[in-house]
Amino acid sequence: MTKKRKWIKWAWIGLPIGLLLYLGIYVFLYLGKDQQANRYRSAQLPDTFRYNFAQPIEELQFQTPQEGLLNALLFKAPQPKGVVCFWKGNGGTLVNWGTMAPTFLQCGYDVLITDYRQHGKSKGAISLANFYSDAQTVYDSLKRRYSENKMVICGYSLGGRVAAHLASMNRPKFTFLIDPASAGGDFSDRFTDWLYYPLPSVNGFTFLTDQDVQNALSPVIIVSTDNPHSTAYQLQSVLSPNDQHVVIPHATHASILNHPQTIQLLKEVLAD
């Protein structure tokens, strides 16, 4: 048997095996799609838990679509100029994320911080659609207390993804995104979507933040690390002339939230 015939023989054997392996991995990933929600769970708190902060707070509960119940804290400034709707990163609860409140209170803004579903006292099934609809419910509730032109949306990491979507659907004073990213990572999600196109996506949490930023109805300020491959850094390509992109050299995703340059920038934009 010639080499050419051997190659053809092995190709006929390998092709169906490769196809079965390709489809088998796809089925495995697709059937495990719902399990991706595990990446977005966090520590739970009993319903009787009492928060203890030095600042005046009002504990709020929000009934949201698809049987959601969100727990939130409204931190109050003495004479507020408006309110910051802050969306936290993945993990942790209001117990530790509440320490962000003084940054906004010192600028004369009330701040609302909300626990996602299955974080702290919040309850309900986790899905991409629920992240978005829950955030809109919370935002609509704030609009009954504050004029929208006095509302600021702010988000960090996963919260930056949620905040960006809110910005595409509403007209806050402006939106401040601090290194927006998702728990799964864009590269792996988009690679599998490309690999299995045109089959239905195996990803249940593909946050289209670039589209949301591009569709924002009011100015957006993005703070990123100097990593050119990060989601936040690459968003500069979709910004409008009214938007702003600020790079903080040597900052990491973990350090950028409380980086002195981030805090200073927040104070400057909230002072206006």
Please give a structural write-up.
The chain is an alpha/beta fold and 272 residues long. The chain has a single domain, classed as Alpha/Beta hydrolase fold, catalytic domain (Rossmann fold). It contains 9 helices and 8 strands. An 8-stranded mixed β-sheet has the order 1-2-4-3-5-6-7-8, sandwiched between helices. Strand 7, helix 8 and strand 8 form a beta-alpha-beta unit. The mean pLDDT is 87.
A few lines on this structure:
The protein has 272 residues and is α/β, with parallel strands linked by helices. It has nine helices and eight strands.
Helix count equals 9
Enter the CATH topology name.
Rossmann fold
Question: How many strand units?
Answer: 8
Note the overall shape: globular
Name the strands of the widest sheet in spatial order: 1-2-4-3-5-6-7-8
Number of domains: 1
Give the SSE order as H and E letters. HEEEHHEHEHEHHEHEH
List the helices and strands and how they pair.
Layout: H1 3-31, E1 57-64, E2 68-75, E3 82-87, H2 94-97, H3 101-105, E4 109-114, H4 128-143, E5 151-156, H5 158-169, E6 174-178, H6 186-195, H7 209-214, E7 220-224, H8 231-234, E8 244-247, H9 260-271
Parallel strand pairs: 3-4, 3-5, 5-6, 6-7, 7-8
Antiparallel strand pairs: 1-2, 2-4
Key descriptive features of the protein:
272 residues; alpha/beta; Rossmann fold; 36% helix
